[in-house]
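Exercise 4. Each item below gives a protein and its sequence. For each, produce the structure-token representation.

Item: Cytokine receptor common subunit beta (Eudyptula minor).
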Amino acid sequence: KEMTCRFHKGENHADCQNFTMHWVCHRHGYDQRTYNFKFDLTLHAELKVYLFQNVQTLPPQNLSVSLMTSGDFLLTWKAADGSQGLGNALEYEVTYKREWESWEKAASLLLSNTTRCHLSHEDLVPGSNYVARVRARRGQASGFSGRYSEWSTEVSWEAPEGGLQPRNLRCLFNGADRLTCSWEVKKAIITSVVFGLFFRATRASAEEECSPVHEKALTHIPYVVQSCEIPVSNSSSQSWYHVSVRAKTEEKVIEAYKNIKVLPPANVSVTVTESQEYELRWIKHTFQYGFIKQRYQVEYWKNNQYEKVSLRKRRRPGFLFAGQMGRTVPLAFI
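Answer:
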């Protein structure tokens, strides 16, 4: 038999939460019965499942990496047990990154009909540790569909040290008016070599230099990220840019006669005169051009005290000054 119950607006029970609804049902008389409580709404869900339209395979197995004689790297794996029956109907996504990077910034490759992936050493930053993973799904061309498997176990390797070439040159268009390019160079050379980004919008246009170049040091690796924004005025689906990063040539005009560094005087000697004075003599170096004159500066100090006294400059290769016998006086020229 059905009983009608009503919502009770009275005080909530102590063991009920504020959002708990309190219903009251009355039945006259008392006897031992079994009571069933149910909603007056039908709550259920059902689905008709087509097996090969809802495929999620197990993740690929035995992912490994090997170094090729060319210096490139080869990733290999195999389909998970139980998935071999799908054969060539599987396609794979391979992602790889440097260990310190997030997976959101990882490079992604889509592959079909193969269980191997070739990674060129030119696409890797030398001296960096990399990690890769792979996942599988039913190929779209098979007419079936599904979702990707979970990721496989990760495999890691180290890219060998390379030269001083700029690496990891990448450019991204914001879809409106700016093409942002970035690249990496070794910290060891940025103090002596200046890199620039050069670009051409068409084959016929003149090459331009992008400016300014921004720089950001990476604490995890011995590289610095440099970047520059190229303004885009007219863009279309057929637009392309040719960009290159190279060391810039620094030019400076040096006038030889304004940059002369004389060799130090030779055969320096000190003798004591009859008047108890010291006579300092040396041999000067001769120049190819007689009009170039030399001037001398003498410094002397008490031994181990290093309180230098500078004497006036002279043009002649000799000097006479008073002193006390028995005192050691080192001499230096500037």
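Check: The CA atoms of residues 191 and 211 lie 19 Å apart.
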